[in-house]
Design brief:
161 residues, mainly beta, OB fold (Dihydrolipoamide Acetyltransferase, E2P), 6-stranded mixed β-sheet, 5-stranded mixed β-sheet, 11 strands, 11% helix, 43% strand, disordered N terminus
């Protein structure tokens, strides 16, 4: 009998990414960080936070901060439509929602499909990128969740304790 090791099911998710769109650009997040995808809902505004932090939502009794990815990447705000949704992620045992234009699909990427991101500056979120992948002639920008959320967590939750 074969012995299999699973660390909380994450072994099954290795190399799997959820892809989503901001305008015509495809981004991805590691599937291991994704909790769920929800439709847009009422977001309660919080004063004094960065412009891209839209506020908080109540997700089954849990308060979840929500950021607009398009605004964080310096893109203009746009009206939400029926494809706009919130990807609920977890990082360092904290849930955070990300507003995206639309969710595409789950893909499997291996290391030979990935390359380091260009060092062209911080415009359009290059500082948040882990790698760039190609799949079926499409370019996918893979987000480094730790870098992406690091400033937000420090800003939003520095007053906890």
């Amino acid at each position: 009998m074969e012995d299999r090791k699973y660390s909380d099911g994450l072994d099954d998710l290795s190399g799997r990414y959820l892809t989503f769109y901001i305008d015509e650009v495809i981004y991805s997040l590691p599937l291991g960080h994704i909790i769920e995808i929800i439709n847009m809902q009422h977001i309660t505004h919080i004063p004094g936070v960065p412009h891209y932090v839209k506020g908080i939502v109540n997700l089954r009794g849990k308060v979840v901060p929500v950021s607009d990815v398009r605004l964080k990447f310096g893109q203009p705000e746009r009206p939400h439509d029926d494809k706009t949704c919130i990807i609920v992620t977890t990082i360092n045992d904290m849930q955070v929602g990300l507003i995206v234009d639309s969710v595409a699909e789950v893909v499997t990427l291996d290391k030979n499909q990935m390359a380091a991101p260009p060092k062209a500056g911080k415009r359009m979120g290059e500082s948040y990128l882990d790698s760039i992948a190609t799949l079926n002639d499409k370019v996918i920008l893979n987000i480094d969740c730790t870098k992406f959320f690091q400033a937000d967590m420090a800003e939003l939750f520095v007053h906890e304790n």
